[in-house]
Amino acid sequence: MSELPSHAEVEAQCARLALATPASQLHGALCGWLAGGGAGGRDWLARVLADDAIAAPGAGTALDRLREATAAQLADRDFGFELLLPDEGESLETRSGALFAFCQGLLGGFGLAAGEARALSEEGREALADIAKLAGATAQDDGDEEDEQALVELVEFVRVATMLLHGDCVLAAGHRRSLN
Questions:
Q1: Which fold has domain 7-179?
Q2: Which residues neighbour 19 within 8 Å (Cβ) at sequence distance 6 or greater?
Q3: What is the pLDDT of residues 139-156, one digit of tens each?
């Protein structure tokens, strides 16, 4: 199973490239792009950021490994897909803010790849609507054990919802092609 580079590695490369997009949001955009049927080529960064002037990440860099691992995880039948989020040692505010930023990126990337012509299941449409609500949420500055558990559940929901969207747009389309 392909492992994502660390959040810190991706954040550092984003800073080196002067990208205005934080690591979790960028990963969300990549996931949305792939889930919506976007090509997983090395030029993904320019596509998900809608800026043709951005060069493809160099082979073996954190962003290149992010692309490779994400594509492999989404295609994995064992549901090994993971979100790129800050470590559990970070504050609840930092981690929840990163989850909401992931959702913002996911919506953007998915919209770019799938456009208006997406054939989503009812569950997929509901999942996309729920992700849109999370994308508009505000990070909480502190919390208790109950808030921590709620965050864990939200992360799991977004993880499964992303796989569902990928299944609707990519796997189902591939299955339909193989039947014809």
A1: Four Helix Bundle (Hemerythrin (Met), subunit A) (1.20.120)
A2: 26, 49, 54
A3: 877 778 899 999 999 999
